[in-house]
């Protein structure tokens, strides 16, 4: 099985603080060609908000966006 470590440098979407992220990638998808993308959710060590990071196995950063946590419905007061 192919395995690699990807190091990404980016700024948090929320507080704009610098973050260094190391991701270990493994599996058959790494051999799928240059169009392969992976996504990971990473909490910011400064503000605690979660960033969604989309990247290629070669370390190219394609997108950093806020991760919207699923909204839990509140019970009705009726």
Tally of individual helices: 0
Q: How do the strands of the widest beta sheet line up side by side?
A: 3-4-5
Any idea what the shape is?
A: extended
Q: Topology as H/E string?
A: EEEEE
Distance between the termini: 56 Å
Mean pLDDT: 89
Name the structural class: mainly beta
C-alpha Rg (nearest Å): 16 Å
Task: Classify the helix fraction into a percent range.
Answer: under 10%
Question: Percent of residues in beta strands?
Answer: over 45%
Low-confidence segments: none
Per DSSP E runs of 2 or more residues, the count of β-strands stands at 5
Largest sheet: 3 strands, antiparallel
Characterization of the model:
The protein is mainly beta and 78 residues long. The protein has strands at 3-11, 18-26, 38-43, 50-55, 61-66. It has a three-stranded antiparallel beta sheet, with no helix packed on it. The protein has a two-stranded antiparallel ribbon with strand order 1-2. A hairpin with a 6-residue loop joins strand 3 (38-43) and strand 4 (50-55).
Any descriptors?
single chain, 78 residues, mainly beta, three-stranded antiparallel sheet, two-stranded antiparallel sheet, extended
Topology record:
Blueprint: E1 3-11, E2 18-26, E3 38-43, E4 50-55, E5 61-66
Antiparallel strand pairs: 1-2, 3-4, 4-5
Short description:
The protein has strands at residues 3-11, 18-26, 38-43, 50-55, 61-66.
